[in-house]
Amino acid sequence: MQNLRGILLMIAAMAGFALADMFIKLATATLPSGQILMVMGAGGAALFATLCLYRRIPMASKAFFHPMILTRNLSEAVGGASFVTAFALTDLSTTSAIMQASPLIITMGAALFLHEPVGPRRWFAIGLGFLGMLIVIRPGLSGFEAASLFAVAGVVALSIRDLATRATPDHIPTPLMAVYAFLLLVPTGAAILPFEGPPAWPDGTTSLWLGAMILFAFLGYFAVTASVRSGALGVIAPFRYSRIVFAMILGIAVFGERPDGFTWLGTALIVGSGLYAFLRETRVARQQAAQ
To answer: Where are the domains of the chain?
Structure first.
């Protein structure tokens, strides 16, 4: 029963994140990306700061200057700016498909930089996932969109963020890390604005989209945290890929997107290889624990 609860929470979290992405893309129709990034940073920091106050977590901390926290925050800023730009310039379904390569990049990074053991089967899965990403992007072919490279930069940056999080000391609370990361999005957005033009005052509809963007991202964070704590990670984690299902549905229903065969094939390779790599990792861990 706990596993079922964890699965449902994970699916709900992925739906929340997909909806947040949708509202970002809607807002980019009338607002520059830098301004959206500033709103996202200020709103997210305010919500997580409130959570820190509720849990009596001091926010003035030397933890901000820890090398892994600095790496995490800078990666978050680069990733956030890249993805907001990608959502503005490319299809929601395309950007979301590229995002699914993150677990494979993390596995590769953990092997190369954290010296975690990765066997030949998982290396093959990583290569297959990267092939899937190339099929989605299709460089050199007629359907290639240079703007999709923003999504690639974003997924690499957020993978570095997650690797830095793994190396962060356990005594630094997660909500505090979130406050720092969101705060850094504000100056990052301000730095982008001069290249996009002046900020615009959002109308009522756009203001609702911005509020919904922050709310669904915050709810997604809570749901994914509760999910991981509810049941066996090996059962729950594969349902992270439900995000691409929601993104495809929203892209088609809201934006009239029509993913072509290359996008479907590339997405299937990315998701399939990611699932295989995760299940293989779980199996190896169980075998080692049994010895």
So the answer is: 1-290
